[in-house]
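Final report, closing paragraph on structural work. Over the funding period we assembled a curated collection of sequence-structure pairs, and we close with a single example.
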Amino acid sequence: MLSLFAATPMLLAAQDHVHTELRMPHLLVGTWEGALGDARYREEWMPAGPFTFEGFARTLEHGQVTSEERMRLTRFADQWFFMASTGSSGVTSFVQVAAHEGTWVFENREHDFPQRIGYSVQADTLRAYIAHLDDQGQRVDFVLTRSK
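Its predicted structure, as stored:
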């Protein structure tokens, strides 16, 4: 009986972590905008099911769309997956490797670039990045604010 009482805090912490991890993608829902160099970047996220979220990103330079990307965040087999497709490219999948306090990191070691994608939501600010695994060389940082 004593071991049950000793294990209870660990079980509650594990349940709280799972609850927090399942709630985290909901923080992305909405429209986010910000500068990306001389361009304007906009990312929109909406729920598409209980464990699936659809995203769409667009970069505008001088009023012209220079890039578009479709994204999906979905939970399968107790893991979150981030999938992205730009233009005519196929779909590239990334698996979640870290999650804590509004921050998620996804990786695909086989992809050329990016190999790592990170998202962090704090209040009305979304910080994201794309990078190589070693975080050296090419890295693009995004700082966006909620517009809707």
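Helices lie at 2-23. The chain has one domain: 2-146. We thank the funder for supporting this effort.
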